[in-house]
Structure to design on (340 residues):
């Protein structure tokens, strides 16, 4: 029997992993209350992290997930912690403005996050060794506020009143530096989704050291490392990691008479030109090539997450800018593992 988890909103640029883990925690708590007689099932496309992480009592699938239809709904904003009948259920995510999903019960989110483990022991050891003498900090992108949305306000994103506007990059950088300057002589690990682009639309593999990146000042003035140091990504290696067995020519899945000539830059931005198909030796499809790129982006997220977890200390995003469920996850996970 299955508990099927609903959609929390997903794109490869902004996967919403923190929010998805919050909803997964509801499913885990409900499953535990029912003696773990269910499998939690998630959509493979939106849970690529399961390639690298173990979520207990959880499987991911596209075919099975979409085959489960017309299920009884468990509404996470109502009285949901109950004994269930012997059948499959659909755990419905609340709308964004009514987040988080764990009311009216206690905030048990912090109870189960540490159950999620890295599959790759070698990667785990690499991360721990790299960051054991560093302080991790997370910087979240400033929110984009829709003035016509009554459920959105600047204040909901900050733990304290904040008058720095989204496009005031100098003001934001001063705020970040004030925080880092409190840790004289320390080394840092940075995790961030902040670029000059609109949130969720920046490069998948940003190189924050480049002059064109807002965070380059941090790398210039402090001893900082990031995911690129752990994954050993250089400007050229993004190309090498992907499957370029046919050069940069791939098949178009939607029209078999077409090929695509693909270019992917050093920060994971991809563009293509359509060509007429006059070759029959091309095996890899555009979707397969881009899937490899997306897997690398997800691995970047995983490295960021566990680098913050295993750092010797952690600076929550509410110190450097807006709150984030990402930072909440790290804080709860750290509190658990340091108690064990």
């Amino acid at each position: 029997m299955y508990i099927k988890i609903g959609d929390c909103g997903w794109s490869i640029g902004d996967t919403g992993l923190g929010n998805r883990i919050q909803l997964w925690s509801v499913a885990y708590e409900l499953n535990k209350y029912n003696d773990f007689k269910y499998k939690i099932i998630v959509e493979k496309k939106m849970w690529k992290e399961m390639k690298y992480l173990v979520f207990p009592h959880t499987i991911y699938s596209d075919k099975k997930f979409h085959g489960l239809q017309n299920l009884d709904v468990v509404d996470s904003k109502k009285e949901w912690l109950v004994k269930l009948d012997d059948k499959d259920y659909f755990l419905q995510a609340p709308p964004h403005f009514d987040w988080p999903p764990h009311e009216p019960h206690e905030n048990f989110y912090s109870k189960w996050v540490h159950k999620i483990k890295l599959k790759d022991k070698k990667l785990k050891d690499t991360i721990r060794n790299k960051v054991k003498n560093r302080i991790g900090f997370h910087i979240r992108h400033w929110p984009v506020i829709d003035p016509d949305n009554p459920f959105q306000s600047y204040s909901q994103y900050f733990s304290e009143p904040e008058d720095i506007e989204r496009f005031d990059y100098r003001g934001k950088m001063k705020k970040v530096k004030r925080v880092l300057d409190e840790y004289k002589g320390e080394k840092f690990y940075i995790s961030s989704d902040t670029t000059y682009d609109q949130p969720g639309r920046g490069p998948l593999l940003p190189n924050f050291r480049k002059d064109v990146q807002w965070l380059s000042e941090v790398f210039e003035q402090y001893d900082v490392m990031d995911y690129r140091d752990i994954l050993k990504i250089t400007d050229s290696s993004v190309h090498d990691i992907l499957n370029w067995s046919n050069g940069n020519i791939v098949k178009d899945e939607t029209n078999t008479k077409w090929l695509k000539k693909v270019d992917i830059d050093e920060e994971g931005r991809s563009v293509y030109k359509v060509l007429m198909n006059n070759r029959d030796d091309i095996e890899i499809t555009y979707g397969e090539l881009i899937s490899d790129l997306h897997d690398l982006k997800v691995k970047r997220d995983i490295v960021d997450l566990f680098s913050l977890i295993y750092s010797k200390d952690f600076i929550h995003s509410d110190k450097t800018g807006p709150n984030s469920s990402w930072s909440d996850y790290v804080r709860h996970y750290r509190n658990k593992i340091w108690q064990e």
